[in-house]
Amino acid sequence: MLATLFLAIACVGIARPEGWAGPTLAEDRLVASIERGELAAVDIQDSSGKVLWRFPLKDQKHPDGSKIDPEAIYSTPAVADGIVYFGAYDGWVYALDLATGDIRWQEETGGPIIGSAVVQDGVVYVGSDDGKLYAFDAETGALKRRFKSGDNIWATPLVTDGVVYVPSMDKKVYALDAASGEEKWHFKADAGLASTPVLADGTLLVGGMDRRLYALDAASGEEKWHFKASNWFWTRPLVLEDTVYAGSLDGKVYALDLNDGSPRWDEPFDTEAPVRAAPLLLDDVLLIVNRKGELFGLDPQNGQLVWPLPIDLAKTVLADPLAQGDMAYISAQGGDLFTVNKDGRAAPLVLTE
């Protein structure tokens, strides 16, 4: 039932998609979705919360003359060389000027976009619900290549050391040559893969809807180990030294040995609600946020509470939090933004026009 609930939240074809885009920091501004289907840049240099630009404007059009309507934004914006890149539920990939919000280019895929865009070496990689991974020229938007998997791609790809790692709902994670797009290897799980992969010391970590967190040899795709929870792993794992921290839709956060997957804590930490947002290290505090918007500060060594009580934002949180020094920014579904510090003090980010 819980899995079905999350599919209803995230899947394509729903009547009113909400989106859950996480925030991105670039220069002196926070780029975030502050309204359903709308992206904005917010000045945070002097804590004024001034909205510098919004996208889309009422009169903005696609090349075919149709009105731009992103519908919802699940994709956390990526910023490179003064350009903001993101995909939207309408199936389009947008490149906006960071300073002004003006459109640099826009290109259409064949389905809604759930995962985030990744920019590497002048190429923008983004997966689509049409089952394809697209590679666009970052400056012009020209399509360089695309790779077709066997089902929807909801995950954010990982691009590193000339390899693109792409989890798919066809139960496979693919390793592709970044220059040619040719497949190097693939690994097949027992269910769809939708979490953003992480690479640490030659080990690729990716969570699945078969309730397993997989550790694969990044060079060959061979399984090193897996750990099974009681519900999906849909979070992006966090690796600190040789410990893997991963949340699950079973409401628990697990600390595992990177080498063999054995538990590092006496018991997992139970948030009592699904965990979709990735764990975050905030100074020396492990920040965990569950779907209900409850924030927990943990000691990463033992999984014990550092803050005496959780912080209740009273908003649905599915997006990954973002750290800047000893401050974290959290985006709730619907566009509310919050700040929280390592001592457990949280406040809404008040926006002004």
Mean pLDDT: 94
Task: Report the sheet with the most strands, covering strand number, pairing sense and barrel closure.
Answer: 4 strands, antiparallel
Strand content: 35-45%
Helix content: under 10%
The coarse silhouette is: globular
How many strands?
32
Sheet with most strands: strand arrangement = 1-2-3-4
Radius of gyration: 19 Å
Distance between the termini: 42 Å
CATH class of one domain: Mainly Beta
Q: Structural class of the secondary structure composition?
A: mainly beta
> Under CATH, the topology of one domain is which?
Lipocalin
Structure description:
- This protein has 353 residues and is mainly beta.
- The chain has a domain at 1-148: Lipocalin (Beta Barrel).
- It is built from one helix and 32 strands.
- The strands form eight sheets. A four-stranded antiparallel beta sheet has the order 1-2-3-4, with no helix packed on it.
- The longest helix has 9 residues, at 2-10.
- The termini are far apart.
Topology:
Blueprint (H helix, E strand, L loop, with lengths): L1 H9 L13 E3 L2 E7 L2 E6 L6 E6 L22 E3 L2 E5 L4 E6 L5 E6 L9 E3 L2 E5 L4 E6 L5 E6 L9 E3 L2 E5 L4 E6 L5 E6 L9 E3 L2 E5 L4 E6 L5 E6 L9 E3 L2 E5 L4 E6 L11 E2 L9 E3 L2 E5 L4 E5 L12 E2 L9 E3 L2 E5 L5 E5 L4 E3 L5
